[in-house]
């Protein structure tokens, strides 16, 4: 199937909705989510596979207007992989110019260097359990700033040890970016991951649970 990636002035939007941010340093904060269609990865535990192909082409200006009309200050661009669409860079800049706080969730396999520097990157490093670890771009890790966040989705102890190696190799703890450890739902108990974090603590490391799944356990979309 050939996927439509939109253009610099049009986006292929899977979902656009208001909710609370479920993860990371802004968990619990009201948020406008812009979920763009498409992703070149196929992580084993992906919970947004519906965003691989489903979506509607929309003018970038229309998307910006809808986000601003919500009155919500924080905006998350997600997917899929939002940066696989050329219009994502322009969307992020337009929202920053409009005074919004913007973050982009990215899978770590695409170049983020052209992103507006005002945007927070939430980089999802792929552990071996995802079956996508070979797609990680080391240069993305080396470019992270203290304002960025790094997420590791952990299925088992091997994934946890892999994450620790990545953190050490790229000096992420010393750089000050938030280090988020998320258990794979149904495979690793949060308590076990919490125990590992307590046994071997790191500055800025935190247990990262998906708050929206606790609030709306039966909802698969729009949360």
Write the layout of secondary structure elements.
Elements: E1 10-20, E2 30-36, E3 56-59, H1 60-69, E4 74-78, H2 87-97, E5 101-106, E6 120-125, H3 138-142, E7 149-154, H4 157-169, H5 172-175, E8 178-183, H6 190-199, E9 205-207, H7 211-215
Parallel strand pairs: 2-4, 4-5, 5-6, 6-7, 7-8, 8-9
Antiparallel strand pairs: 1-2, 1-3
Helix pairs in contact: 1-2
The whole-number mean of residue pLDDT values reads 94
Number of helices: 7
Number of strands: 9
Strand content: 15-25%
- Structural class from helices and strands? alpha/beta
CATH structural fold name: TIM Barrel
User: Domains counted in the coordinates: how many?
Assistant: 1
Describe this structure in words.
With 223 residues, the protein is of the alpha/beta class. The chain has a single domain, classed as TIM Barrel (Alpha-Beta Barrel). The chain is 26% helix and 24% strand. It has a nine-stranded mixed β-sheet with strand order 3-1-2-4-5-6-7-8-9. The longest helix has 13 residues, at 157-169.
Features:
223 residues; 7 helices; 9-stranded mixed sheet; TIM Barrel; alpha/beta; single chain
Summarize the structure.
It is built from seven helices and nine strands. By secondary structure, it is of the alpha/beta class. The protein has one domain (10-215): Aldolase class I (TIM Barrel).
């Amino acid at each position: 199937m050939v996927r439509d990636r939109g253009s610099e002035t049009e986006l292929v939007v899977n979902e656009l909705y208001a909710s609370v941010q479920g993860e990371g340093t802004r968990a619990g904060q009201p948020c406008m989510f812009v979920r763009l269609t498409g992703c070149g990865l196929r992580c084993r535990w992906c919970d947004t596979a519906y965003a691989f192909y489903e979506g509607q082409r929309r003018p970038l200006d229309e998307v910006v207007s809808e986000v601003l009309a919500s009155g919500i200050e924080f905006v998350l661009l997600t997917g899929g992989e939002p940066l696989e669409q050329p219009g994502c860079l322009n969307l992020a800049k337009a929202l920053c110019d409009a005074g919004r706080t913007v973050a982009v969730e990215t899978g770590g396999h695409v170049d983020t260097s052209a992103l507006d520097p005002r945007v927070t990157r939430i980089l999802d490093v792929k552990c071996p359990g995802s079956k996508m670890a070979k797609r990680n771009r080391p240069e993305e890790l080396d470019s992270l700033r203290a304002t960025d966040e790094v997420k590791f989705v952990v299925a088992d102890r091997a994934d946890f040890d892999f994450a620790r190696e990545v953190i050490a190799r790229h000096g992420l703890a010393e750089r000050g970016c938030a280090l988020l450890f998320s258990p794979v739902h149904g495979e690793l108990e949060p308590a076990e991951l919490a125990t590992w974090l307590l046994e071997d603590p790191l500055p800025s490391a935190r247990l990262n649970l998906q708050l929206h799944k606790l609030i709306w356990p039966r909802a698969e979309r729009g949360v």
